[in-house]
Amino acid sequence: MTTLVAPAPGSALRWLAADSWTIAKRDLVHWVRNPTAIVFGVTFPVMFVLLFGYVFGSAISVPGGGDYREFLMPGMFAQAMISGAASTVAIVSTDRARGVTDRFRSMPVSRGAALVGRSIADLCNSALELTVLVVCGLLVGWVTRTGPLAVLAGIGVLFLMRFAMIWVGIFLGLIVSPEAAGMAWAPIFPLSMVANTFVSPEQMPAWLGTIAEWNPVSATAGAARILFGNAGAVTAGTASWPAQNALVLAVLWPLLIVAVFLPLAVRRYARAAR
Protein backbone atom coordinates (compact mmCIF):
# COMPACT_ATOMS: atom_id res chain seq x y z
CA MET A 1 0.00 0.00 0.00
CA THR A 2 1.39 3.38 -0.98
CA THR A 3 1.25 6.17 1.53
CA LEU A 4 1.26 9.76 0.29
CA VAL A 5 3.28 12.06 2.49
CA ALA A 6 2.31 15.71 2.48
CA PRO A 7 5.26 18.06 1.94
CA ALA A 8 6.50 19.82 5.02
CA PRO A 9 5.43 23.47 5.37
CA GLY A 10 7.77 25.65 3.40
CA SER A 11 9.42 22.73 1.61
CA ALA A 12 8.01 23.76 -1.78
CA LEU A 13 9.46 27.24 -1.33
CA ARG A 14 12.85 25.85 -0.28
CA TRP A 15 12.77 23.50 -3.26
CA LEU A 16 12.01 26.40 -5.59
CA ALA A 17 14.79 28.53 -4.08
CA ALA A 18 17.39 25.73 -4.27
CA ASP A 19 16.53 24.74 -7.85
CA SER A 20 16.33 28.36 -8.97
CA TRP A 21 19.80 29.11 -7.61
CA THR A 22 21.20 25.97 -9.28
CA ILE A 23 19.85 27.08 -12.65
CA ALA A 24 20.97 30.65 -12.03
CA LYS A 25 24.52 29.40 -11.40
CA ARG A 26 24.35 27.45 -14.65
CA ASP A 27 23.33 30.61 -16.52
CA LEU A 28 26.05 32.67 -14.82
CA VAL A 29 28.73 30.10 -15.69
CA HIS A 30 27.67 30.23 -19.35
CA TRP A 31 27.79 34.03 -19.21
CA VAL A 32 31.29 34.09 -17.65
CA ARG A 33 32.54 31.67 -20.32
CA ASN A 34 31.40 34.08 -23.02
CA PRO A 35 33.77 37.03 -22.52
CA THR A 36 32.69 38.66 -25.77
CA ALA A 37 29.18 39.17 -24.41
CA ILE A 38 30.58 40.58 -21.17
CA VAL A 39 32.86 43.05 -22.94
CA PHE A 40 30.15 44.19 -25.34
CA GLY A 41 27.52 44.48 -22.61
CA VAL A 42 29.83 46.60 -20.45
CA THR A 43 31.56 48.76 -23.06
CA PHE A 44 28.48 49.72 -25.12
CA PRO A 45 26.89 51.83 -22.33
CA VAL A 46 30.27 53.34 -21.49
CA MET A 47 30.66 54.44 -25.11
CA PHE A 48 27.26 56.15 -24.89
CA VAL A 49 28.36 58.00 -21.75
CA LEU A 50 31.50 59.24 -23.45
CA LEU A 51 29.68 60.11 -26.69
CA PHE A 52 26.87 62.11 -25.10
CA GLY A 53 28.88 63.40 -22.15
CA TYR A 54 31.76 64.83 -24.17
CA VAL A 55 30.60 65.11 -27.80
CA PHE A 56 26.92 66.12 -27.66
CA GLY A 57 26.73 67.30 -24.07
CA SER A 58 28.11 70.76 -24.77
CA ALA A 59 25.16 71.47 -27.08
CA ILE A 60 22.44 70.25 -24.70
CA SER A 61 21.06 72.39 -21.90
CA VAL A 62 19.54 71.08 -18.70
CA PRO A 63 16.16 72.53 -17.67
CA GLY A 64 16.71 74.59 -14.54
CA GLY A 65 20.48 74.59 -15.09
CA GLY A 66 23.13 72.21 -13.89
CA ASP A 67 25.82 69.96 -15.27
CA TYR A 68 24.68 67.86 -18.25
CA ARG A 69 26.71 64.80 -17.27
CA GLU A 70 24.98 64.82 -13.91
CA PHE A 71 21.66 64.87 -15.80
CA LEU A 72 22.86 62.18 -18.21
CA MET A 73 23.93 59.41 -15.84
CA PRO A 74 20.54 58.52 -14.30
CA GLY A 75 19.19 58.35 -17.85
CA MET A 76 22.01 56.01 -18.82
CA PHE A 77 21.29 53.84 -15.79
CA ALA A 78 17.65 53.56 -16.83
CA GLN A 79 18.57 52.84 -20.44
CA ALA A 80 20.88 50.02 -19.34
CA MET A 81 18.10 48.42 -17.31
CA ILE A 82 15.72 48.56 -20.28
CA SER A 83 18.26 47.42 -22.87
CA GLY A 84 19.11 44.32 -20.84
CA ALA A 85 15.83 42.80 -22.05
CA ALA A 86 17.43 42.22 -25.47
CA SER A 87 20.01 39.82 -24.00
CA THR A 88 17.26 38.03 -22.08
CA VAL A 89 15.29 37.49 -25.28
CA ALA A 90 18.37 36.15 -27.09
CA ILE A 91 19.42 33.74 -24.34
CA VAL A 92 15.94 32.35 -23.68
CA SER A 93 15.27 31.92 -27.40
CA THR A 94 18.59 30.10 -27.91
CA ASP A 95 17.90 27.76 -24.97
CA ARG A 96 14.48 26.95 -26.38
CA ALA A 97 15.85 26.25 -29.87
CA ARG A 98 18.57 23.97 -28.48
CA GLY A 99 16.15 21.94 -26.38
CA VAL A 100 17.41 23.23 -23.03
CA THR A 101 13.97 24.55 -22.13
CA ASP A 102 12.37 21.16 -22.83
CA ARG A 103 15.05 19.47 -20.75
CA PHE A 104 14.31 21.70 -17.78
CA ARG A 105 10.60 20.98 -18.11
CA SER A 106 11.23 17.23 -18.09
CA MET A 107 13.58 17.23 -15.09
CA PRO A 108 12.44 16.66 -11.48
CA VAL A 109 12.90 20.29 -10.50
CA SER A 110 10.51 22.91 -9.23
CA ARG A 111 8.30 24.02 -12.13
CA GLY A 112 9.14 27.69 -11.77
CA ALA A 113 12.87 27.23 -11.15
CA ALA A 114 13.96 27.75 -14.76
CA LEU A 115 12.22 31.12 -15.00
CA VAL A 116 13.20 32.32 -11.52
CA GLY A 117 16.78 31.16 -12.10
CA ARG A 118 16.90 33.08 -15.37
CA SER A 119 15.69 36.23 -13.63
CA ILE A 120 18.29 35.87 -10.86
CA ALA A 121 21.11 35.45 -13.39
CA ASP A 122 19.95 38.47 -15.38
CA LEU A 123 19.77 40.62 -12.25
CA CYS A 124 23.35 39.60 -11.40
CA ASN A 125 24.47 40.52 -14.92
CA SER A 126 22.73 43.87 -14.63
CA ALA A 127 24.39 44.52 -11.28
CA LEU A 128 27.81 44.27 -12.92
CA GLU A 129 26.76 46.50 -15.80
CA LEU A 130 25.30 49.10 -13.45
CA THR A 131 28.45 49.01 -11.30
CA VAL A 132 30.62 49.72 -14.35
CA LEU A 133 28.32 52.58 -15.35
CA VAL A 134 28.43 54.06 -11.85
CA VAL A 135 32.24 53.97 -11.87
CA CYS A 136 32.27 55.56 -15.33
CA GLY A 137 29.86 58.22 -14.12
CA LEU A 138 32.02 59.05 -11.14
CA LEU A 139 35.03 59.40 -13.44
CA VAL A 140 33.22 61.90 -15.70
CA GLY A 141 31.93 63.99 -12.80
CA TRP A 142 28.62 62.45 -11.75
CA VAL A 143 27.86 62.65 -8.02
CA THR A 144 24.93 61.94 -5.74
CA ARG A 145 23.66 64.76 -3.55
CA THR A 146 21.34 62.90 -1.23
CA GLY A 147 21.74 60.53 1.70
CA PRO A 148 22.54 56.81 1.55
CA LEU A 149 18.91 55.72 1.92
CA ALA A 150 17.81 57.85 -1.01
CA VAL A 151 20.69 56.51 -3.12
CA LEU A 152 19.75 52.93 -2.26
CA ALA A 153 16.15 53.72 -3.15
CA GLY A 154 17.34 55.06 -6.51
CA ILE A 155 19.25 51.85 -7.18
CA GLY A 156 16.18 49.88 -6.12
CA VAL A 157 14.00 51.76 -8.63
CA LEU A 158 16.46 50.90 -11.39
CA PHE A 159 16.50 47.21 -10.52
CA LEU A 160 12.72 47.17 -10.27
CA MET A 161 12.52 48.22 -13.90
CA ARG A 162 15.14 45.65 -14.86
CA PHE A 163 13.17 42.93 -13.07
CA ALA A 164 10.06 43.91 -15.01
CA MET A 165 11.92 43.86 -18.33
CA ILE A 166 13.28 40.39 -17.56
CA TRP A 167 9.74 39.00 -17.80
CA VAL A 168 9.17 40.82 -21.07
CA GLY A 169 12.39 39.24 -22.34
CA ILE A 170 11.50 35.75 -21.12
CA PHE A 171 8.07 35.87 -22.74
CA LEU A 172 9.41 37.13 -26.07
CA GLY A 173 12.29 34.65 -25.95
CA LEU A 174 9.81 31.79 -25.64
CA ILE A 175 7.91 32.78 -28.79
CA VAL A 176 10.53 34.08 -31.26
CA SER A 177 13.32 32.33 -33.11
CA PRO A 178 16.99 32.97 -32.29
CA GLU A 179 17.27 34.88 -35.56
CA ALA A 180 14.41 37.18 -34.63
CA ALA A 181 15.75 37.47 -31.08
CA GLY A 182 18.93 38.98 -32.49
CA MET A 183 16.83 41.98 -33.52
CA ALA A 184 15.22 42.42 -30.09
CA TRP A 185 17.18 45.63 -29.59
CA ALA A 186 15.30 47.27 -32.50
CA PRO A 187 12.09 48.15 -30.58
CA ILE A 188 13.98 48.68 -27.31
CA PHE A 189 16.36 51.29 -28.72
CA PRO A 190 13.70 53.88 -29.66
CA LEU A 191 11.91 53.18 -26.37
CA SER A 192 15.01 54.31 -24.50
CA MET A 193 15.66 57.25 -26.84
CA VAL A 194 12.16 58.78 -26.93
CA ALA A 195 12.37 59.52 -23.23
CA ASN A 196 14.11 61.93 -20.89
CA THR A 197 17.23 59.76 -21.09
CA PHE A 198 19.41 62.28 -22.93
CA VAL A 199 17.27 65.44 -23.17
CA SER A 200 14.25 66.82 -21.40
CA PRO A 201 10.87 66.22 -23.11
CA GLU A 202 10.39 69.99 -22.88
CA GLN A 203 13.02 70.35 -25.62
CA MET A 204 11.15 68.00 -27.99
CA PRO A 205 8.21 68.79 -30.29
CA ALA A 206 5.01 68.89 -28.23
CA TRP A 207 3.57 65.58 -29.51
CA LEU A 208 6.86 63.74 -29.08
CA GLY A 209 7.44 65.31 -25.67
CA THR A 210 4.08 63.99 -24.47
CA ILE A 211 5.02 60.46 -25.54
CA ALA A 212 8.41 60.82 -23.84
CA GLU A 213 6.86 62.05 -20.60
CA TRP A 214 4.66 58.94 -20.30
CA ASN A 215 7.44 56.56 -21.30
CA PRO A 216 8.28 54.11 -18.46
CA VAL A 217 11.96 54.85 -19.07
CA SER A 218 11.32 58.53 -18.32
CA ALA A 219 9.65 57.62 -15.03
CA THR A 220 12.61 55.49 -13.95
CA ALA A 221 15.21 58.06 -15.05
CA GLY A 222 13.26 60.93 -13.49
CA ALA A 223 12.86 59.06 -10.20
CA ALA A 224 16.58 58.25 -10.17
CA ARG A 225 17.45 61.93 -10.67
CA ILE A 226 15.20 62.88 -7.77
CA LEU A 227 16.58 60.20 -5.46
CA PHE A 228 20.19 60.95 -6.43
CA GLY A 229 19.61 64.73 -6.21
CA ASN A 230 20.89 65.26 -9.74
CA ALA A 231 20.39 68.06 -12.24
CA GLY A 232 17.10 67.89 -14.09
CA ALA A 233 15.15 66.52 -11.12
CA VAL A 234 11.73 68.15 -10.90
CA THR A 235 9.48 68.99 -7.99
CA ALA A 236 5.73 69.46 -7.73
CA GLY A 237 4.45 72.45 -9.68
CA THR A 238 7.48 72.79 -11.95
CA ALA A 239 6.62 70.40 -14.78
CA SER A 240 4.02 68.05 -16.25
CA TRP A 241 2.08 65.54 -14.15
CA PRO A 242 4.24 62.54 -15.17
CA ALA A 243 7.41 64.46 -14.28
CA GLN A 244 5.99 65.60 -10.95
CA ASN A 245 4.98 62.03 -10.09
CA ALA A 246 8.02 60.23 -11.46
CA LEU A 247 8.57 58.37 -8.17
CA VAL A 248 5.05 56.96 -8.25
CA LEU A 249 5.20 56.02 -11.92
CA ALA A 250 8.66 54.46 -11.47
CA VAL A 251 6.98 51.90 -9.20
CA LEU A 252 3.62 51.56 -10.97
CA TRP A 253 5.02 51.03 -14.48
CA PRO A 254 7.24 48.04 -13.53
CA LEU A 255 4.46 46.50 -11.41
CA LEU A 256 2.07 46.79 -14.35
CA ILE A 257 4.62 45.23 -16.71
CA VAL A 258 5.22 42.35 -14.30
CA ALA A 259 1.49 41.84 -13.81
CA VAL A 260 1.06 41.46 -17.57
CA PHE A 261 4.17 39.59 -18.68
CA LEU A 262 4.97 37.30 -15.74
CA PRO A 263 1.74 35.28 -16.15
CA LEU A 264 2.20 35.28 -19.93
CA ALA A 265 5.77 33.98 -19.56
CA VAL A 266 4.75 31.29 -17.07
CA ARG A 267 1.88 30.12 -19.29
CA ARG A 268 4.05 30.09 -22.38
CA TYR A 269 6.79 28.16 -20.59
CA ALA A 270 4.29 25.55 -19.37
CA ARG A 271 3.08 25.02 -22.94
CA ALA A 272 6.46 25.32 -24.68
CA ALA A 273 7.39 22.64 -27.16
CA ARG A 274 10.31 22.21 -29.51
From TrEMBL:
InterPro entries (UniProt xref): ABC2_TM, ABC2_TM_bact-type, ABC_2_transport, Nod_factor_ABC_transporter
GO CC terms in record: ATP-binding cassette (ABC) transporter complex
Protein name (database record): Transport permease protein
Topology in the lipid bilayer: Multi-pass membrane protein
Family indicated by similarity: Belongs to the ABC-2 integral membrane protein family.
Keyword DNA repair assigned: no
KW Secreted (keyword) present: no
UniProtKB keywords: Antibiotic resistance, Cell membrane, Membrane, Transmembrane, Transmembrane helix, Transport
Cross-referenced PROSITE patterns: ABC_TM2
Membrane-spanning parts: 35-56, 76-94, 149-175, 246-266
UniProt superkingdom: Bacteria
Cellular localisation: Cell membrane; Membrane
Domain ABC transmembrane type-2: 36-272
GO molecular function: ABC-type transporter activity
Any one biological process term the GO annotation gives: response to antibiotic
